Structure formats: structure tokens, C-alpha cells
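Researcher: Batch entry, complex prediction.
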Amino acid sequence: MIELKNISKSFGEHRVLKNVSAKFHKGKVNFIIGRSGSGKSVMTKCTVGLLEPDEGQVLFDGRDFTLMNQRKRKEVHKEIGMLFQGGALFDSMTVSENIKFPLKMFSEMTDQEMDVRVVDCLKRVMLEGHGDKFTGELSGGMQKRVGIARAISMNPKYLFCDEPNSGLDPQTAIVIDNLIIDITREYGMTTVVVSHDMNSVIEASDTIHFIHEGEIAFEGNNAEMMVSKSETLNEFIYASKLMQKLRDR
Amino acid sequence: MGIIFHIGRYTRFILRVFRKPENGPVFRRSLVNEMTTIGTNSVGIVALLSLFMGAVMCLQTAHQVSGWIPVYTIGFTVRQTMILEFSPTLIPVILAGKIGSNIASQLGTMRVTEQIDALEIMGINSAGFLTLPKILAGIICLPLLVIMSMFLGLASGAGIAYVTGVSSMADFQYGLQVDFVSYDVIYALIKTTIFSIIITSVSAYHGYHTHGGALEVAKSSTKAVVYSVVIIMMSNLILTKLLLT
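Model: C-alpha cells for the complex:
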């Protein structure tokens, strides 16, 4: 489980996160939703250590990440997989090399064992036979799947996905959502997904944290979200005509 | 205030760069790749510039030599210019454009496409992983390129002197040898080594700290070249004062 306790973060005068507390549960797909600029990405970056929170604690299974030195943080980082919005694949490497990279850096595996692991990961994301391609040759959806394959190559305990469906067509988005759900269940990971895609939230979420102007304005599951009386949450959920029609039914 | 901020951030960046690499074999492979990019891929441009520069230097000096000035001055001037200034200073300035912009745009693109964040999330010291091989490759390759430049410049000077007849080979050769001080070469190589650190680290610093998109990558690339050249020129003055006088 990942726990945030009273996290605050400011950039100059602008306070982006205001005493945010949240729990992300093991074996569940935990969503952070909110409008653009609400603080979702900053919250995720503070959680994984890409940004330092000004105040508060980040606990990975009870281990206080904010108090750790660089060496201990590295150990926690080895337990984290992350899927970035744009894939963040190394474009100088092939698909296989991208997946093999963390294994080469940190595992004790032989070359043959690494190759087997790469093939397994590629199979898991339904990309067998694409290992020799360069990332620039892949479609957006395929790049996201390679990103997932690289994220899971080290068997992480925690998976972070930043806008996994941005720029994808609805069908491919569903493929990615299902993949995230399946992998979370299969590996028993604590998965945190940052998104503002309501289709994904409805399809894939176990828990939802709605962040508004740097504060958690709602915390609950799908069913609770749909009947919430929170005005800001309802404005966000029912922004599209499709969702409004669903609500009116 | 801006300068103090940059000096502080650059110092912190360099302290991160010079940490022990996470994985020795991966680091060595990366070093070889960088030596190819920085060293081998620069041989052509360095050779071309040095050949022309040596030849031009020969003809310009020959144009000045008349009356009481001995003909061997041509060889002497070509040697001194190539060894003291052209090869160790102007070659790094030109390479700051080629290598510096390459490093800054590579790291800048990696930053804006979140590849550097991906390295950090994996538990890799991204500053060291991406920059240390470049700095070491520069330290190894630039002095070798400068030695090559010196030889080619002197050879082309001799060649053009022979072809145009502005100096006999014997006079040119005497000019090359007269009052030769081997410390000048050491001075040149010390300068080059320091300039190679400036080019690679300053360019990496600007690329690594890029924020935004394609426009910012281009700006970082330009800044990398401009700052590298300015710092090289300032260091050149200081080093010359310290090492030659």
C-alpha cells in the first residue's frame, strides 16, 4: 500500500498541493482524477520522488520515502514501474532493448534469462514479434504497451500510469485499460493511474481520488462517485453530453 | 543573481555526474559509443579545417615576409599558430558547435519526452548515466583530435609552401624546428583537456535542465554552444596567463 500524509507542494507563490492525504491499496487500480492543472501530476511526481514535497510523508508499505537517503530511495525505485504519458521509451533502442534495459542495469540475470523475460513481457502486452523494431516505428498504442512491458519487466510492487490513454482511440484505450487491470491482479501490484478520461475511470477503477485545486475533494469507488453530491466532482464527471445523457437515464 | 543560480545548479549537477556508475559494463559500452560520436565522427571536420588553416596560415605569413625577415619565419609562424592557438582553441570552439549542440539537443529531447524521468524512476542516477561517458569521451578524444590537427596543419603548410614555391622545404623545415619548446605542446594539451570538460559538461547541463517542448530544446542547444564558447574564451585567457607567463 502507498500512503500520502498531508503532502503540500508549492511553486513560488502558487500552492499546487494543499495537505493532500490518500491511500492507494495493494492489488487495486487506484485512480487519481481531476481537471488539467488540478495537481494530479504534481501529486504523482511527489509520490515517486521526481519532485520533493514541501511537507508531509509518502509511505511505501510503511517505509517513509521522504526521510530516505538516495541509496535507500534507489532500492524503492527498483520496486516501482511507471508508464509515462508519452511512453518515454528510449528512442535509440529497439523495443527489446528498452524492456531489457532495467534488467541489464539491476538484475543478476544472464543474457539468455533476460531474453526469455523480454519475450514473456512482450507476450503479456500482446507484442510478440515486434522486439526488433525501433520505438519510432510503433503506433501510439503499441508504444504504451511497450511502456507497460518495460514497467513490469522487473516485477514491480508499485505501478504508476500517467494518462495511459491520452492520444489513443477508444478501442485501443480499452485494450490498455484491460491490460492495466489484468497486470494489477496478476502481480498483486499497487497501481496508481492518473487520468481525466471518464471512460477509463468507469471501466478500470477500484478506488477514485478526485483532486480539485490541490485538495482531495472526493475519495471512494465508482458507484459512490456516480451518486456523489460534490458539485465540483459532478461538474467534472458530467462535463460531456454523453455522460449527461447517462445520468439523465 | 542568475549567474549565481547557474553556478550553484551546475555545481550540484557535476557532483551528481561524478558518482560511481550503477553498472560497469553498461558504462563502458556507453563510453565507447560516446567516443565514436565525439571523437571518430569529428575526425573529418577537424582534418578538413586543419588542412585549410595550415595552408592559409602559410600563405598569409609568406605575404608578410619580405626584406630582412627570413623565409624560415613562414614555417615558424605556422608551427606556433597551429600549436599555441589554432588547434587547442579554435578546434574546440568549432567542436563546441558540433558536439555541444548535439549533447544539449539529445539530453533536452530526453528531458521533454520524459526519458530522463524514466531513468530516475528506475533508480538510475540519470545525470551520471548520461553525462559522465560524454565528459570522459571528450577528455580522451579531444586531445587526440588536437594532436592530429597540429600534424595536419603543419603538413598542409609545408605542402602549400612547396606547391606555390613561397618557401623551400629546407627553410620551412628549419622554421618548424627553430626555437621549438616542447612545453608549448603540453600547454596546448592541458588547454584542450579543460576545454573538452567545458564543452561536454556545459552542454549537458543546458540539455539536462531543459523544460518545455521543441522550442526550449532548440534554445538549450543554442545556449549550450554560446556559453561553451564564451567560457572557453575566458578560460583561454586565464590558462594562458597561468601556464605561459
